[in-house]
Amino acid sequence: MEFLQNLNLYQTAGILFAIALVTHIALKLLLRKLVLHASKTKNQLDDYLIKSISAPLKVLVWFVWIYFSINLFKKEFSSLEQVIGYIDIAPIFIFTWGILRAISNTEAYLLSRNANINKDSIRMVTRLVKILIIVSIALGIAQHFGFSISSLLTFGGVGGVVMGFAAKDMLSNIFGGLLLQMDRPFSVGDWIRSDKFEGIVEKIGWRMTRIRTFSKNPVYIPNSIFASIPIETPSRMTNRRINEIIGIRYDDIAQMPIIVEEVEMMLKTHKEIDQSEPLRVFFNYFNASSLDFNIYAFTETVNKNEYQQVKQRILLSIADIITKHGAEIAYPTQTLHIQK
């Protein structure tokens, strides 16, 4: 202790710097060992959390050195008194930084852990949590510097009403985006369509959603639109439907019952048709130049290419059945009667 009392301010500051440097190196080695240990565990969340706190802890070590060094010189430099009043809140910023990093890394962990979770909802929740933390810290700092929180909240309430009228469209889009995250009628990567647009969802933002149409053009849609129009999500379909009308000639009406029966039997035994879904084959229409029967069934696959192949095979099989019974598929004809 007597040795420390005999040191001047600059020597004491140098010793504090050396202590901070040693602490920084020791902390770096400790964190490296923690990371090595965490990498061996099955749960990877600890890796993300250690990564979150490493940088803020190192900054905190150097802040402590700066704080004590300024306290050493404040008697010699009176202007440093004001500096101390401001840097007192620096640890709050450091801890807030660490918390925000922890939230961001937790979000990254959740997004990388499971591909089946709703990534848009996770992003939305983490953003809201970050905003709440930042607003709370900002109000606390304002109170620390002598501002009246009640006055700020009152002013914020009045300002919120004014802003609400001035930016009601923007706010409706933001709330529309929040409802999209809560209801989840579609997610990023889904194929959606309405009477106004159709494409793949690329991004669900705070204010608008970006859709890539099948012509590869991006379409930006305000989120409030989705509350007023019906949206279809074909990418979530469970089956694809075959709904076709096939006509044969009027001359082949005698073959219609056997043709319908065989087509129905073919579909009921077809391995690529979902037998748990409705399946109908009926003679329905006396058309202008054909006798029409309807085929209604659902395929097992929802893949577009596979569905087209299944449908092609089924239609060719129906054509074979019609031909086998000496009938023909009808085409538009006209009969002209000429009086002699």
Extract low-pLDDT stretches. none
* Gyration radius over CA: 36 Å
Mean pLDDT: 80
Distance between the termini: 137 Å
How does the overall form come out from the CA principal axes? elongated
Strand order of the largest sheet: 1-2-3-4
Helix fraction bin: 55-70%
Encode the helix/strand succession as letters.
Answer: HHHHHHHHEEEEEHEEH
Helices, by number, come to 10
Number of folding domains? 3
Task: Characterize the largest beta sheet: strand count, sense, and whether it forms a barrel.
Answer: 4 strands, antiparallel
Into which percentage range does the β-strand content fall?
5-15%
Written overview of the protein:
The chain has 3 domains: 2-166; 170-235, SH3 type barrels (Roll), CATH 2.30.30; 238-324, 2-Layer Sandwich (Alpha-Beta Plaits), CATH 3.30.70. Helices cover 56% and strands 13% of the residues. It has 340 residues and is of the alpha+beta class. The chain has a 4-stranded antiparallel beta sheet with strand order 1-2-3-4. The longest helix has 30 residues, at 9-38. It contains 10 helices and 7 strands. The mean pLDDT is 80.
What features would you highlight for this structure?
single chain; 340 residues; alpha+beta; SH3 type barrels; four-stranded antiparallel beta sheet; three-stranded antiparallel beta sheet
